[in-house]
């Protein structure tokens, strides 16, 4: 009997995701006669300790995963459940994403105090809370009049701040609210082609050691191939652009339903944005193809040709 130690952040969302994943893995192991049990170990990450500072100012992506990856490398834990969008484009040597489960809703959504059901309904100059440069730059593009202000904290904290700090609305990822059972708080969904989600948004990545064949076998059974293809394309785009969660980059891939016949390759459509919170510029491109790594890289190259490098450098240079 193998005891699998699962590392997790201690936020309500991280705990909920981790417990849901463990339930699914228990079902799979029972079904396939794999003998294992699970224990949970909470790990405090740097991102959890400095919730009051704008993330782009304290080092960006990786803040929520570094300590957890170290625990994996040290053998203190055997697997970790991450929100895919919090994962840096490159993993440390020795670690792999062992499972990519089926994606939740990838869209961003609005929680508005007055119950507005569309972005267009927000009053002129409304105060909207988001700490994401990606959301801010796309929102500004649609509604230059909105007053966008930073809001930090776990999703439970942000919902509380909506009331306490006089926001008209806040923007959050739908997936986190769905997983928490808070769907009824959502007043509007922003279509994924209007506000391009973060790379990997709505998906989970389950990380383990590349040499742990027991974990690889179990986790392999939990992967959803469509999600994996889409997320691979999005992350390939991120890797080439060298961007983290805290720069205004977004990408969303969809898989077209398979055509007739046996040998039809999957057709992926990948749309990406690079925004500038400084100038309000917004680049947007779409590519299609069947090889996820290739189309991600191709999209990034065409963004760079359009000036993405300069725009991302501008953001990095902000005081
Ligand atoms: N950056 C924080 C974060 N990381 C993952 C989610 C939840 C949604 C998901 O799994 O993509 C959130 C909260 C949010 O952006 O609203």
Automatic annotation (TrEMBL):
Q: Report the coiled-coil segments.
A: none
Q: In which pathway does it act?
A: Porphyrin-containing compound metabolism; protoporphyrin-IX biosynthesis; coproporphyrinogen-III from 5-aminolevulinate: step 2/4
- S-(dipyrrolylmethanemethyl)cysteine modifications at: 245
Check the record and name the InterPro entries matching this protein: HemC, Porphobilin_deaminase_N, Porphobilinogen_deaminase_C, Porphobilinogen_deaminase_C_sf
Q: Could you name the domain of life of the organism this protein comes from?
A: Bacteria
A molecular function annotated in GO for this UniProt entry is:
hydroxymethylbilane synthase activity
Needed cofactors, names only, are:
dipyrromethane
- Specify whether Transferase is a keyword of the entry: yes
Class of this enzyme: transferase
Q: Where is the Porphobilinogen deaminase C-terminal domain?
A: 229-304
What is the cofactor note? Binds 1 dipyrromethane group covalently.
User: Which purpose does this protein serve, as stated in its record?
Assistant: Tetrapolymerization of the monopyrrole PBG into the hydroxymethylbilane pre-uroporphyrinogen in several discrete steps.
Q: How is this protein organized at the quaternary level?
A: Monomer.
Q: What else is known?
A: The porphobilinogen subunits are added to the dipyrromethane group.
The UniProt similarity line reads:
Belongs to the HMBS family.
The name under which this protein is listed is Porphobilinogen deaminase
């Amino acid at each position: 009997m193998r005891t699998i130690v699962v590392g997790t952040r201690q936020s309500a969302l991280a705990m909920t995701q981790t417990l849901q994943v463990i339930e699914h893995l228990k079902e799979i192991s029972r079904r396939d006669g794999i003998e294992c049990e699970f224990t949970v170990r909470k790990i405090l990450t740097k991102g959890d300790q400095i919730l009051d500072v704008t993330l782009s100012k304290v080092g960006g992506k990786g803040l929520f995963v570094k300590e957890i990856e170290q625990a994996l490398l040290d053998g203190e834990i055997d697997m970790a459940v991450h929100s895919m969008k919090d994962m840096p484009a490159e993993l440390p040597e020795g670690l792999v994403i062992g499972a990519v489960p089926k994606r939740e809703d990838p869209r961003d959504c609005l929680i508005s105090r007055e119950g507005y059901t569309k972005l267009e309904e927000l009053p002129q100059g409304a105060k909207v809370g988001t700490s994401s440069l990606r959301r801010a730059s796309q929102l500004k593009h649609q509604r230059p009049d909105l007053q966008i202000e930073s809001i930090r904290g776990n999703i439970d904290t942000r919902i509380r701040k909506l009331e306490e700090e006089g926001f008209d609305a806040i923007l959050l990822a739908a997936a986190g609210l769905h997983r928490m059972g808070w769907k009824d708080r959502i007043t509007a969904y922003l279509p994924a082609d209007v506000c391009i989600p973060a790379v990997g948004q709505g998906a989970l990545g389950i990380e383990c050691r590349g040499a742990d064949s027991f974990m690889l076998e179990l986790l392999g059974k939990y992967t959803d191939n469509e999600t994996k293809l889409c997320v691979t394309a999005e992350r390939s785009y991120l890797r080439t652009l060298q961007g983290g969660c805290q720069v205004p980059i977004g990408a969303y891939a969809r898989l077209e339903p398979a055509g007739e016949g046996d040998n039809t390759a999957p057709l992926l459509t990948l749309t990406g944005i690079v925004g500038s919170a400084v100038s309000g510029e917004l680049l947007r491109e779409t590519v299609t193809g069947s090889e996820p790594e290739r189309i991600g890289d191709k999209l990034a190259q065409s963004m760079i040709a359009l000036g993405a490098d300069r725009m991302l450098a501008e953001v990095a240079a902000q005081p």
